[in-house]
Structures are given as structure tokens and as C-alpha cells.
Amino acid sequence: MNAEQQALEYDVVVVGAGAVGENVADRAGRGGLSVVIVEDELVGGECSYWACMPSKALLRPGAVLAGARAVPGASEAVTGGIDTAATLARRDRFTSDWDDAGQARWLEKTGIDLVRGRARFTGPRELSLEPDDATLDAAPAGTVLRARRAVVVATGSVPVIPPVPGLAECEPWTSREATSAETVPASLVVIGGGVVACEMAVAYTDLGAAVTMLVRGDRLLDRMEPFAAQEVEESLMELGVDIRFGVEAVRAARQDGRTTVELSQGGSIVADQVLVATGRRPGTGDLGVEALGLEPGRPLAVDDAMQVTGVEGGWLFAAGDVTGRTGTTHQGKYDARVAGDVVAARFSDGPAAAEGAAAEERAAAPWSRYRATADHAAVPQVAFTRPEVSAVGLTEQEARAAGMAVRAVRYDLGNVAGASVAADGYRGTAQLVVDDARGVVVGATFTGPDAAELLHAATIAIVSEAPLDRLWHAVPAYPTVSEVWLRLLETAGL
Questions:
Q1: Which of 249, 207, 215 is nearest to 232 (CA)?
Q2: Cross-strand partners of 145
Q3: pLDDT, average across residues 473-486
Q4: What was the pLDDT predicted at 356?
């Protein structure tokens, strides 16, 4: 280090100040460790500014409007469609107009130092910082950060643009541009069929765009139950979305403000904008992990304590998308809490050290707070499409592939009294995947209006491994949609 370089030392360095990094830093700091968090964009990360919050703000008006139209007495009051300007303005409020001052203040109140800049590993427990030109209070170029105890990587993931000739030059949208757009294109081509693709197809159709989806496979939402994907497909088509299966973009060009996409099956389609939603890769490409003997652009493989494998010394941890284990904010935050607790237990001094070490010794027990076991058995996810799709645990196919003797128990949500009160013509489905050998639920999927609100009960049932005959005594209130739990158990034979 030369004389002009500034060295900053902390017990723990967290790289990435998104929701995952914030949770790691908070939990690690509770054991008395000094913690710094490094960020080269906005504190709060992808979820706050370009993913969860703005996307749901864009989707909510359409869901509310559809809900009102399904209830006589309210439907008569609906005299118009979605107000695009008001929707975008409300979205902007949720993102704080892409100003992170409030979240930076939270770090300060919590006792976590913030350093702005782009961090790269230069060796074990050491990173160099380069300022982000757009950040006025960035660390000086050449600043070195050293961790006395641990480094935790929480750099998330970045969207992938497929290598279609001409596509990158057309400046397509990714999820970032789709959730932060200031205007609505008259026509939008969505490449992809996953959660982001389906959600944005709904949102932009609601906002008045003519949407076409290009899906390489033969179905949407290929990580969810087939019946759920089918219901979303039917709903999108009813909304007017043109879905083309078994189709790939093979070339793209932009001229006079419009993009022409040539298709694998022949022909082409022209649109004002293209959204690429074909997946993401871990944010390790420019992190300097090669200095640690790791491969850039690849996930940081971790054990259930969130310690990175393949790096000696037990000092490197990772959580969230960057590990390749999870792809949602809520599960990333769960992993972050585990990582932070493990770091605090292993590296805190004084009485806390002995207590933490003893606690982690007991961590081999199932469902220990020092192990991210939910990543294997109870990952919840919601697609805020119409209908919403919420799922947790294993699909029927995944359970069978794992060697379990399971059966699927399904019930039509429209036959539940609470659903009929919620909306005329309520459409939705509930399914449990039951492991008959143990008599427990290992997976659940719900579709329908506000189906996300049914998910946590299923998550609790799976995590607690509650036997079906015990769940029989968990009485659902009447008339609510949750009464479907009683109907599912009856269908299961109780």
C-alpha cells in the first residue's frame, strides 16, 4: 500500500447494501463486532428500487380494479380504467424517487458504517475500492478495506442478455428498465416465460401496452406446478397477451425507434420496446474473486452456515442470489440472518464468544438458526400475476424425483364459502403435496386473487412438519378463503 492509499479496518466487511447485505450487517453487529457495508449503487439494492417494490406497485392497481369488478355493488362504481400517470407516480413513491437517503440513515442509526464504492478482492480479507463516478460521497480511489474477522458477499445477481445477434445493440429493457420506466410503450415484446416475464406482461397490459411473449419452451413458470402455469397462461390470453411457445429470437435490429425481432420459426415481430427476462447470473463478475482462487461470474458455493466452500480459513461467507441457492428477497434475507448469526457466534469476543460458540455447536440439530435448512425444504415464492401463484416446498414432480411416495391433494378454491364472498366467479386452485410415509405436507401451491396470503400457513406446516392429523385441529375461520385447508384435509381422507 502506498502513502496515498487509505486503509480502513473492521471486524466484518459486507459487500452489497441490498436487503440481504443489510440483514447480514445488522445480525453480525449484534454480537459487538464492528461492521462496514460497501455499496456502489443505492442502499436498499435491487428489491427496493428495481424489483419487488416497484414491480408490485405497478401490478397492484390492476389487481384491485379486477377485484372491484368481481363484486356487485363495487363494480358499478368502476367507471374507468387504470390511471397510468397515477400508477407511475405511486411507484415512484415506493422507490423514494430512487433516493437512498432514508436507508442510509437506517444504517447509521443501527451503528453500521457505509462506504460507497466498487469493491474488489485483492487477497484474503482485503478489498480495494474504486469510486462510482455518479456517487459524490464515494470512498477515495485506492482505499483499502480489511476485515479482521470475516467478509460477507451479498452482491446479488445481474440480468442476462442472451447472445442474439443485434439484441444488445437494441438496448432492450431488463427488469430494471421495466420497473423504472417513465412512459409506457405502445407495444412490448417480452422474451421469457418466468416470473418476471409473466408479471411484467400483466403490468404493461394493464397499463395499455400490446404485449407479445416469446417463450422458448412449451409452458410458462416452468418451476411451478403445471396447473398453476396453465391458469396463468389462460388469464394472460384473456387479458389480450399474445403468447408464442416454442419460439426464440434469432436476430434483432432497431430502426426509427422500433425493434424488429426475427423469430426461429420464421417471420418477425416489430415492437416499440423489448424486455429480456431470460434469467440472471450471480454478481461475481467484477468482484476480484479470482484473487481467492474462485471463478468470476459463477455462484459462490456455500454450506448451510453460508460459509463459502473452497476458500481456506473460514472467513468468507455469502448470502442471497450470489450463492445460486435462492432467487427471492425474502429467502435471501433468511440466509442473511443465518450468515450474520454465524459470524457473530464465531467471531465475537468476551462472554458472547463462549455463548455463541456453544450455540453453534448445537447447530447440527434440524432447523437450527445457525443453518439455512429452509433452502432445501421450504422455499416460498409468489408470482404476482393474475391469478397470483404462491408456492412453497416441493412440487409433486420434485418430491417424486427425490424418492418420496407422495400424492397431490387438490381443491377448487371457487367452492370455498369465503372465496365466493370475496368475489363473484372466484377462480383458483389449492394443492398440497403429501408425503404419506410421514403423514406430512412437503409442498403447497395456491392460485387465485390474493393467493399470496394463503402461503405462510403452508410454510409453517412444512417447516414444523406438522402431521396431517394435527393440522386437522387447526380450525380455519369462516367464511374465509383459508377454509380451503379444511377442504384439503377432508380430500386427503381425514
A1: 215
A2: 8, 127
A3: 97
A4: 59
Q: Is the pLDDT of residue 3 over 50?
A: no
- DSSP class of residue 477? P
User: Does the pLDDT value for residue 351 go beyond 80?
Assistant: no
What CATH number should be reported for the domain whose range is 387-491?
A: 3.30.390.30
* Residue 336 vs residues 20, 264, 369: alpha-carbon distances, Å: 6, 42, 11
Q: Is 32 left (phi over 0), alpha (psi -120 to 50) or beta?
A: left
- 346-351 contacts at long range (C-beta below 8 A, 24 or more positions apart): 346/149, 346/150, 346/314, 347/11, 347/12, 347/31, 347/33, 347/149, 347/150, 348/31, 348/32, 348/33, 349/32, 350/32
Listed residue (247, 218, 248) closest to 233, CA to CA: 218
H or E segment at 271? strand 268-271
Domain ranges of the chain: 7-44+100-158+282-374, 168-278, 387-491
Q: Cα-flanking dihedrals φ and ψ of residue 174, to 5°?
A: -110, -170
As beta bridge partners, residue 244 has 214
Q: Same CATH topology for 168-278 and 387-491?
A: no
